[in-house]
Amino acid sequence: MPGFLKAHGETIYGLMRIVVGFTFLCHGLQKFGILPGGPPELGGLILAAAVIETVGGALVMVGLQAGWAAFICSGTMAVAYFLVHQKDGLLPIANRGELAAVYCWLFLYIASRGSGKLSVDDAMA
Questions:
Q1: Cα angle: 79, vertex 84, 90; to 5 degrees
Q2: Mean pLDDT, the chain, whole residue set
Q3: What is the total count of domains within the chain?
Q4: Is 112 exposed, middle or buried (0-12, 13-18, 19+ CB in 10 A)?
Q5: Which of 92, 118, 94, 90 is nearest to 103 (CA)?
Q6: CA 70/CA 105 separation, integer angstroms
Q7: Within a domain: residue 37?
Q8: Confidence of residue 37 (pLDDT cuts 50, 70, 90)
Q9: pLDDT class for 18, splitting at 50, 70, 90?
Q10: Where are the beta strands (DSSP E) in the chain?
Q11: For residue 125, is it within any domain?
């Protein structure tokens, strides 16, 4: 890590968690029709994904039990990748699954670190 960033690593992690949680929350709100561009029908796996994206994204964003929420979000993105994207090719660049793959690994990283700084969990500790 560059020396000038080392002192800010925990804050940068907290900001990353907030941004990732917020963008994931937006995907859930989009599926519910609150933000534009949602799916034509909301049912089955899309409904389950919408709930996980909305609730999980919000929990990760605010840092409330973010480790557990991120673990569930990571699994959801793994399922999305293998059920939705992989049928169109193995590589994420070919099957348009880059976002699902990146979210899956980001959430797994967040699950391994927990809420960290700038979180409700940290404030309550």
A1: 90
A2: 94
A3: 1
A4: exposed
A5: 92
A6: 10
A7: yes
A8: confident
A9: very high
A10: none
A11: no
SS3 125: coil
Instruction: List, for residues 57-116, the tens digit of each pLDDT value.
Output: 999 999 999 999 999 999 999 999 999 999 999 899 999 999 999 999 999 999 999 999
Residue owning tokens 């049912």:
43
Structural tokens at position 45:
């796996």
| Single-letter amino acid, residue 68 | W
Look up tokens 């963008």; give the residue. 23
For residue 78, give its domain range.
3-120
Identify whether the C-beta of residue 56 lies closer than 8 Å to the C-beta of residue 70: yes
- CA–CA dist 56, 64 (Å, integer): 10
Please check whether residue 78 lies inside any domain of the structure. yes
Structure tokens at 16: 């990353």
